[in-house]
Amino acid sequence: MSAAAPPLSHRKAPKWLPYLLVSPTLVIVLVFTAWPTVQAVYMSFFRQYLNFAKFRTPTFIGLHNYRELFTSPDFLQVLKNTAIYVAGTVPASIVLAFLFALLVNRAVKGIGLARLGFFYPTILPMVSAATIWMFFFTPDYGLFNSLLETLGYHGPENWLGNPHLALLAVMIVAIWKNAGYLMIFYLAGLQNLPEDVFEAASLDGASWWTQLWKIAFPLLRRTTLFVSTIAIIDAFQVVDHIFVMTQGGPSGASTVLLYYLWQVRFEDQNVGLASALTVVLIVIMLAITITNFVLSEREGA
Amino acid sequence: MSLKQRVFSLAVLLLVLGLALAACGSKATSTPAPAATQAPAATEAPAATAAPKPVTIEVYYPVAVDAPIAKILNGYIADFEKANPNITVKPVFSGGYGDVKTTIQTTIEGGGKPPVLAVMLAADLYDLVNAGYVVPLDDFIKAMPNGSAYINDFFPAFMANSRYDGKIWSIPFQRSVVALYYNADLFQQEGIQPPNSWQALAEAAQKLTIPNKRWGIEWPSGWPYWLFQPLAIGSGQNIVKSPTEVVFNDPKVIAAVQYYIDLSHKYQAMPEGVQKNWGNAPADFAKGAAAMIVHSSGSLSGILSQAKFKVGVMAVPGKAPGTYATVTGGGNFYMLKGATPEQQQAAWKFIEFITQPKYAADFSIQTGYIATRKSAYDTDAMKAYIAKVPQAGQLKDMLQYAGAELSCMNLGKVRNIFHKYLQAAYNGQMTPEEAMQKAQQEADKALEMFK
Questions:
Q1: What is residue B423's predicted lDDT score, i.e. its pLDDT?
Q2: H helices within chain A, ranges in order?
Q3: Disulfide engineering: A206 pairs with which of A4, A201, A239, B265, CB 3.0-4.6 Å?
């Protein structure tokens, strides 16, 4: 070897080094994600109730848990609720986030305050937010109802007790909570857009509207993909407000997948069925993630 | 490899090991810590027989109640430790009843060591016993010089959820009943007597309703079984019969569901459908937006401090004139498996200590819960309190009308089934008859394998 050592990149690293370097992540993923998944799949073929001695020891029952799930009207209702919840909250939050970002992406005096206003629901813990909204939704004198009344609404006011409104009510809270958070990503995206494209468009006489939809929005495609991914995951994973506001009721009208999973596991103590539900949840999430990934790869190409 | 390379590789290796250790460490601490804190007592060398061995016991306690529970409990614990210098009591305060139960459940299922004592819902009896989490208390009671007198001093209504399989599994601690609160000033103004039947209650509510200004009565139903039970009991049929038998489709229960619906539809005296107003009802009542509410006895002190009128409390009138009904609720002391005999003895001492009439009375006065023992009402402190707040005495007198709270095998599932169909009936999605038949069918199925 010469006296001067060659640059690090030219050196031949030992073969095992890359494996060693990824091993911590790998171990953590295996222990905390892969292993529980395998366990859930395995347990979903067993009957095990923790609240009764006779059924504490798991018994193999094949696909029975899945058969029970897919023939249960409760579960089908839950799937429907979840679909409505995700399809309702995700696009609405994203559109609002984009609009908020456009609104506050200007150098106007006091814009900081407006940004804070839009962002503040994000800082609030979901449980506190839900508690506040419970008061907003109060029939007779709740703020939300008063507001709707001044806008000319005279329909039912019992948002959390009415089976046709309860799901909508928890969706409104989720949208309110998420839009500000997602706005941050659009705001960052907007501020990174190249100025010259817009200048050129202006010179060509493109209207503000055209610039927005034909230039800004397409350029923010990557941001939109990212935002939609986390918004979808969030929609499946955050159910705190349901615990506070409706407990999944009335009559299961606002029960979504994760809340149902909690009920089956911790209230019914039915480990087998809860595992089957976990598998269903994982499959749905995986399908969405893969679809998203494939779409983004195709568009990126 | 050059020295530099070696050093670099070594550094990477150490880093990886460190991360792995950190990961393991965080995993270890994620299993609940309680186990560690109990070690000193267990490892203590056998002392001379004269001085009792030092013992540490942990007590899990829900704090999601209106009163400053932690402060009150810490005071009692200090008194106890003074009287028993060899025993250290470590209270662990956590969220609500559900949180305490879930913590203990996950600790035990995860192979950890649960606390020696915990206050959990009286109604959770069967699930806790069936899961094998708790130990029976009969041996401790028998070892007392006056064990049966001790047990008999608790109000029988509060002991209703303590016995199973011929054994006693829990000791009543913070207990409540369902009460009907009424605005006594309004009653007097309108010349209304406290109602003594369903009919009288409905008419009073109707008379006191002013559209868009005041409801005759509010009756929360977001988590409905508990506040519904007085109606079923008052109709002549409680919804629970035995640990494996619930009664939802009895005509008397169906009549109770219909009565609740009638209060809004026929008498226009109550908000329609499922009422999500558990939190708001006491405030509505105190500010005059509701002339009557059905709520927990635990709300009494809050209501009294806010209301600017004379507050009446009574049991919920029954269907037949002159009958009344209520139902008990709240938490009991349970002893958990896995403690040493010394810890169990110490834990029992603590239960005995804290349920003494003196403390039962003080706890009731400070929190608004009903004192669990008859003799607590003979203490001077309690007599003075009732002279000042007669409603507290009236709540206690309601215990004679109390039925057992819904408690059975597979409780979580059965309760969810009942809620689903009761709310469907309240919201007019099904007739009471249809809803209760379906509830019965599903509940029977959920209980079948537990028979």
A1: 97
A2: 17-29, 35-43, 64-71, 73-104, 111-123, 126-136, 143-150, 166-191, 195-203, 208-210, 217-219, 221-237, 240-245, 257-262, 271-300
A3: A201
Q: What is the mean pLDDT of chain B?
A: 88
Q: What are phi and psi of A48, to 5 degrees?
A: -150, 120
A245 neighbourhood in chain B, CB within 8 Å: 276
Distance CA A249, CA B418 (A): 12
Determine, for residues B13 and A266 on separate chains, whether the beta-carbon distance falls below 8 Å.
Answer: no
Q: What is the DSSP letter of B370?
A: B
Q: How many CB pairs under 8 A join A and B?
A: 125
* Ordered domains of chain A (ranges, CATH): 88-264 (1.10.3720.10)
Residue B446 distance to chain A (closest CA, Å):
10
With CA atoms as reference, the chain A residue closest to B221 would be: A161
Out of A20, A53, A250, name the one closest to residue B132 (CB).
A53
Beta-carbon separation of A251 and B423 below 8 A:
yes
The torsion defined by the Cα of B94, B99, B105 and B106, in degrees rounded to 10, comes to -80
Enumerate domains of chain B plus CATH numbers. Answer: 53-175+329-403 (3.40.190.10), 177-328+407-448 (3.40.190.10)
| Cβ pair A161:B274 closer than 8 A | yes
Average pLDDT over chain A reads: 88
The per-residue pLDDT for range B17-62, each reduced to its tens digit, is: 444 434 443 333 333 333 333 334 444 444 445 567 899 999 999 8
Rg of chain B (C-alpha set) = 26
Determine the residue of chain B that is closest to A52 in CA distance. Answer: B130
Identify which of B116, B97, B26 has the alpha carbon closest to the alpha carbon of residue B344.
B116
> Is the pLDDT score of A241 beyond 90?
yes
